[in-house]
Design goal:
Blueprint lengths: L1 H10 L4 E3 L17 H11 L3 E3 L11 H12 L4 E5 L12 H10 L3 E5 L3 E2 L2 E2 L2 H9 L3 H8 L4 E2 L9 H6 L3 E5 L10 E9 L2 E10 L10 E5 L13 E10 L6 H20 L12
Parallel strand pairs: 1-2, 3-4
Antiparallel strand pairs: 5-6, 7-12, 8-11, 9-10, 9-12, 10-11
Helix pairs in contact: 5-6
């Protein structure tokens, strides 16, 4: 995207992205990594000014020729197109990069093929990012994403054990079905509340000591005090601290959380807050 934005600015064109909206209730293999608001915020931060995201079903039957004529020419009036070297398009992925070059040349559209990003010598892919998250290698996932992986769902009510019995009030964010699940455990995190960042301790899982009927991201922010119910807080995972486990007592759990709080503070001290904007909505 950055290459396209640079070219657009140099040529006096508008940077635009064409992608698809998956059908409601559909799932990606392995789960989605970004929410819609995160995806749009990232594109906006890169300089994209127009996003076309129609339902996949409305365009999946288009031939490669129709895709170029109807979408690139008809909708975008494109002058330059950027794609990865593994790009396919049209019904049953019948079109490839060479066909795109040929069809676009007929319409006077420049095609630039962008080399795929690499991390540790291998091409970055959603499959690699999911695997890193599922294994707790959040540092690898964050490096491939370009910014820390984040949970940004609405804050919901919990059992209030942290507030009433542990002295560590937390926010609860349920991870919806269809999204990738990071390895269950405790992470150091940055939390964006409004325009401010607070370091946090985030447990991803089912809280085996006190119990939960759904997967939650539960975060304690030692330096924050306030009511966040019903609001969306973006929680960026920075470093995996320990696996989730069941403690023999609430006292043991409290001691572990306090220790993790000191660890998280140290991690945040050496890790600047992310630069990406807060999610919309």
């Amino acid at each position: 995207i950055s290459a396209a934005v640079t070219e657009a600015r140099r040529s006096g064109l508008m940077p635009a992205v064409f992608t698809f909206e998956l059908p409601e209730g559909s799932t990606l293999k392995g789960g989605r990594i970004l929410s819609a608001s995160q995806k749009h915020a990232r594109m906006a931060a890169m300089g994209v000014r127009c996003v076309m995201e129609p339902p996949f079903a409305e365009f999946c039957a288009l031939s490669p020729e129709a895709f170029v004529q109807d979408i690139l020419v008809g909708c975008f009036k494109a002058k330059a197109v950027f794609c990865g070297d593994n790009f396919t398009f049209g019904a049953r992925a019948a079109g490839n990069v060479e066909m795109l070059k040929r069809l676009c040349a007929e319409q006077g559209i420049r095609v630039t093929v962008v080399e795929m990003a690499r991390y540790r010598g291998e091409v970055v892919s959603s499959t690699r990012i999911r695997a890193a998250l599922e294994e707790g290698r959040v540092d690898d996932a964050n490096a491939m994403l370009g910014t820390p992986y984040a949970v940004d769902w609405e804050v919901t009510h919990g059992k209030k054990v942290g507030t009433s019995k542990l002295g560590t009030p937390t926010i609860n964010q349920a991870i919806p079905e269809g999204f990738v699940l990071p390895r269950f455990g405790v992470y150091a995190s940055w939390c964006r509340v409004g325009g401010q960042f607070f370091y946090g301790v985030t447990n991803v899982g089912v809280k085996p000591t006190v119990g939960s009927d759904k997967v939650l991201a539960e975060t304690w922010m030692p330096e924050f005090s306030g009511d966040l119910y019903g609001k969306r807080v973006r929680v960026f995972l920075l470093e995996f601290l320990r696996p989730e486990r069941k403690f023999a007592s609430l006292e043991e759990l409290k001691a572990a959380i306090t220790h993790n709080g000191r660890q998280a503070q140290a991690v945040a001290a050496r890790t600047p807050p992310p630069a990406f904007p807060a999610s919309r909505g």
